[in-house]
Amino acid sequence: MTGKKEKFTLNDLLCIIFFALPFLQGLVLPLIPRGGILMLLGLAGLTGLIIVKEPNGLVRYADIIILYALMAVLLGTAFWLDPARRIWLSRDFGVKTALLTGGIFAYPAIRFQKTPKQLFRNLKAAILIRGVYYMYQVLEPIRTGYWQYEQFGVIKRSQSHMTWSYGVLMVIAVLSIMAIQEKKRILFIPVGIGLIGILLYGSRGSIVSYAIGAALYILFGERKKLELKKIVIILLAVIFVAFVFSDLGASTVEMLAQRTGIKSRFITTYLNMMQGDKSMDSESNGRDRIWALVLNMIRERPLGYGPMGHRNAIYRIGIKWGYSHNLFLDWLAEYGVLFGSLAIFGLFFMIVRLFRKSNEPIERMLLILIITVSCEMLFSGYYWIHFGIWSILALYVNHFKDRWQQQRQLGLKDIVQFLVAEEIV
């Protein structure tokens, strides 16, 4: 029946809960004893329940079980063979953090979605919750002039909040898709407000990530000729980013911000580097030291150190996060030059093949969205914790699963027909 409202399912619930996790982790779970553990058990239980309830679910979603089994074997073997790295079972940004932040549940959350439209519908619901949460969070620096948060057991005050800016990046990326796909141009207003918020409080990487997303849209977002309005919007976005990254633009934004009593970390660090007032080392949170160390480690052991095997060396130079702040360096260090390069090639292969094979604009937009937020791992996040890689893998499997299933059924049908023909002969 046309126009019938679609039934809300457990698949929808898992997807919305997963992409609304920042709200739950920031406001709800701290009020519940062992809230993080309960969240982990809830996500795992809901995933299992969906697999069991789906017709032929154990076979249909066997890839989810296989993926988690491979993760367990890979990490378990690495920690069993090397007692020194076991500290990352409980240390911040280790296995415990990966489980309690729930990033690996992105795979089933997306994998369970029947169509790209269903996934995008659930994303919109989750983004509404996330958007409200991030607006609530920004009241803190407006009121006090700084963010206060706990890191490694120490209360810190800062005029910026990188986690907040990457969270807002996810929100404005979805709103941008809605503005383009659903022709709701008014949504570019909150997108602009979000970009201004990132400039004032956020990370340089999140601005670069949004620019990368815009570039991907120009290249792959539309198969047909772009409308004049869209070209104008894209050009304005590019001009805005170029202006902000220029000395004049950065100085202008900083001046306007300081007049309101706000200091932008992004603008200040950018100007310091461009004007030579400070070095890349002082303005990069130690990334240059991390990258130099990891590159030397890769040269010393080109076969790799195994999962999280390079992290103690990074931790010892005073970088408590203990990862490379670059996805590709992490892969090369952990899995070696050969297998790390294969993983990098496989990632690009999946992305390019999805862009080439997908005929649905919303599916390409979703891929651009996930790539945009995954760019955080080029500057910061760690792939065991971030949801990006698992999301791209799920999008790829979802696109080709029907074709693979048809090929398997066709192969079985051919075998049966052959055997029947032989019996008749």
Helix and strand arrangement:
Blueprint: H1 10-19, H2 21-28, H3 35-53, H4 57-60, H5 62-81, H6 95-101, H7 106-111, H8 116-137, H9 139-144, E1 147-151, E2 154-158, H10 162-181, H11 188-201, H12 204-221, H13 228-245, H14 247-259, H15 265-274, H16 280-283, H17 287-300, H18 311-316, H19 327-357, H20 361-374, H21 376-379, H22 388-424
Antiparallel strand pairs: 1-2
Structure description:
The protein has 425 residues and is mainly alpha-helical. The protein has a domain at 138-283. The chain has 22 helices and 2 strands. It has helices at 10-19, 21-28, 35-53, 57-60, 62-81, 95-101, 106-111, 116-137, 139-144, 162-181, 188-201, 204-221, 228-245, 247-259, 265-274, 280-283, 287-300, 311-316, 327-357, 361-374, 376-379, 388-424, and strands spanning 147-151, 154-158. It has a two-stranded antiparallel ribbon. Helix 1 runs antiparallel to helix 3, helix 10 packs antiparallel against helix 11 (188-201) and helix 12 runs antiparallel to helix 13. The longest helix is centred in the last third of the chain and has 37 residues, at 388-424. Residues 273-284 and 418-425 have low confidence and may be disordered.
Which characteristics define this entry?
425 residues, mainly alpha, 2 strands, globular, two-stranded antiparallel ribbon
